[in-house]
Amino acid sequence: MHRMKRVEDSQTENTFLVMNKHINCYGRLFGGVLMQWIDEMAGIVARRHAGTIVTTACVDNLNFKAGAYLGDIVVLIGKLTYVGRTSMEVRIDTYVEELDGTRRMINRAYEVMVALDENDNKVEVPGLIVETASEKAEWEGGEKRYVLRKERRREGY
Ligand SMILES: CC(C)(COP(=O)(O)OP(=O)(O)OC[C@H]1O[C@@H](n2cnc3c(N)ncnc32)[C@H](O)[C@@H]1OP(=O)(O)O)[C@@H](O)C(=O)NCCC(=O)NCCS
């Protein structure tokens, strides 16, 4: 029987402190550093779902909405939105956490990860159980993006 897992089974949160080494020449968190944190998060979420090693197939939709600055606490939350046969789409939301604990979103990204075996062959991933209204809405969006990405690869635009 095809295995199934819940979104919460692989959901992951990670927190960082923005330090001097993360800052660009304009005094903001360097975008490339955040992209690394996002890619690592996508890999962890996908690996937890697949139970195999995974690789990044594409970064789809990475939107910087606001900056982060020295001393900020940055929180990344990653969760699965959609799975195909061997691929998984992960949404990673990044927030700056204020002193009172409220969180302000500064980035949203979607990455597609592919599950691999020890010989780098693609392997089937468990199905995704979507329960809440927002998980169902993400699944529908993920399905549309999956079809669109396939079409773009086929037509090469
Ligand atoms: C990602 C990779 C494994 C896909 O292999 P492939 O033989 O081209 O893939 P296929 O056409 O058989 O597709 C396999 C799955 O990946 C998905 N996929 C492949 N290329 C994709 C892309 N560019 N964007 C989104 N999804 C992609 C397919 O939709 C398919 O999903 P499904 O099984 O859920 O339907 C391969 O291209 C690869 O190894 N790329 C390098 C990855 C890497 O090194 N990443 C780190 C960068 S430093």
Provide the descriptors you would attach to this structure in a database record.
binds coenzyme A; five-stranded antiparallel sheet; 157 residues; globular; 7 strands; two-stranded parallel sheet; 30% helix; alpha+beta
What do these coordinates show?
It is a single chain. The chain is of the alpha+beta class. It contains 3 helices and 7 strands. The strands form 2 sheets. It has a 5-stranded antiparallel β-sheet with strand order 2-4-5-6-3. Strands 1-7 form a two-stranded parallel ribbon. Coenzyme A binds next to β3, β6 and α3.
Unreliable runs: none
Please tell me what the overall shape is: globular
Q: Let me know the number of strands.
A: 7
Main sheet makeup: 5 strands, antiparallel
Structural class: alpha+beta
Order of secondary-structure elements: EHEHEEEEEH
Helix content: 25-40%
Count of individual helical segments: 3
What is the mean pLDDT? 97
Q: Bound small molecules, which ones?
A: coenzyme A
From the N-terminal CA to the C-terminal CA, the straight-line distance is: 38 Å
Radius of gyration: 16 Å
Q: Give, in spatial order, the strands making up the sheet with the most strands.
A: 2-4-5-6-3
Strand content: 35-45%
